[in-house]
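DM from R.C. (forwarded with permission)

"hey, sorry to bug you on a friday — could you get me a structure for this? deadline for the figure draft is monday and I only need the backbone to look sensible"
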Amino acid sequence: MKLFGFFPLMNVGLFLLTAFACISKEPKNDPRFHGMWKLDIIESYDSISGKWSHYETDQYHDGYILYDGKGHMAVHLTSKGYRDFDVSKNVDSLDMEGLKERLKRYQTNFVYFADYQTKENVIDHNRLSATDPFNWGTVLTRDFEFKNDTLILSARESIDANKLRLRWVKY
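My reply, with the result:
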């Protein structure tokens, strides 16, 4: 008789084990991020007027950000004119000024890949690799909001003594 009492308990245990094994290991992120976004504008906050306005910078002018919907993302930011920068000359043929110019231009090309997680209105980019090795393995935290087809990512840290946000439009 005791043997029959064991089978229902075993079936419940097997059911629970199977149910937990089928649970997705993917992070539960905000599905609105999924897809590609094009940089629209970088804005700076004026604490006196309480308004956001266009932030003029030579460093970043164009860019894309991609969220795969599975917890991975990539971003590429470039300076104005980066696309048209002439890199046809062999590095060995450049003089010191030419090398400096090329290095400065390449430094305006910013790329990183990351795992991301969202919680409430905050997104963490856990950077896996980047054009700047200093950023490898670091976490970049941004506040976010959506307005129609626009994603707004606001920096928590001061950048060049400014509070900045980047507006991305669904691509």
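R.C.: lifesaver. The mean pLDDT is 86.
me: no worries. The chain has two helices and nine strands.
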